[in-house]
């Protein structure tokens, strides 16, 4: 995998083969960041990277100037790899070794962008817990977005707060937002 843009554009990152991960493809990642680039100034957002795996998404935000990044994964090897990689690039990424659902239950700080990349084979009930917990616990800023990466075979359009989806090959990104009438 490589960093697509920003200060570390073109840098390759090679994760240990033993990590239980499926990194977001460079093509899908580039398309996602093109969308986000039109919505946000990366140096003024806070990011929560759930099921962070190799830290692929966190590095991309950090390379583009985001300073407030929290990466959550339950695998010690993933957290260790993110810490080592972030240190080697002098990136500030706060890592938390935790089950994502436990973290979402206890978290108090809202974020501008929450990105979740759970296992593609999650049952729909597990996928639905992500937006449920994010919105129940007010973890998204009013102008924020929750993005859930999933297989094109998983349909999240019936979930509450769903906004739209974008498809890139076999990858889908579903976007969830606070409806404008909920902000009042």
Automatic annotation (TrEMBL):
Transmembrane segments: none annotated. InterPro entries: DNA_methylase_N6_adenine_CS, RNA_MeTrfase_RsmD, SAM-dependent_MTases_sf. It holds the Pfam family Cons_hypoth95. Keywords: Methyltransferase, Transferase. CDD domains: AdoMet_MTases (cd02440). Its EC number is 2.1.1.171. GO terms for molecular function: 16S rRNA (guanine(966)-N(2))-methyltransferase activity. This is RsmD family RNA methyltransferase. It comes from Bizionia hallyeonensis. The lineage of its organism: Bacteria, Pseudomonadati, Bacteroidota, Flavobacteriia, Flavobacteriales.
């Amino acid at each position: 995998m490589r960093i697509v843009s920003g200060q570390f554009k073109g840098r390759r990152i090679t994760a240990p083969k033993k990590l239980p991960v499926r990194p977001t493809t460079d093509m899908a990642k580039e398309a996602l960041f093109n969308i986000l680039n039109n919505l946000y100034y990366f140096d003024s957002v806070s990011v929560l990277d759930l099921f962070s795996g190799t830290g692929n998404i966190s590095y991309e935000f950090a390379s583009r100037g985001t300073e407030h990044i929290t990466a959550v994964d339950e695998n010690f090897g993933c957290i260790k790899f993110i810490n080592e990689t972030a240190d080697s690039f002098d990136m500030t990424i706060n890592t938390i070794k935790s089950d994502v659902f436990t973290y979402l239950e206890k978290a108090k700080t809202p974020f501008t962008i929450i990105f979740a990349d759970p296992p593609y084979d999650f049952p729909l009930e597990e996928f639905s817990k992500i937006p449920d917990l994010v919105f129940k616990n007010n973890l998204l800023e009013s102008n924020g977005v929750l993005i859930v990466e999933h297989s094109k075979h998983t349909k999240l359009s019936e979930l509450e707060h769903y906004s739209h989806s974008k498809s890139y090959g076999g990858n889908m990104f579903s976007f969830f937002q606070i409806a404008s009438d909920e902000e009042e």
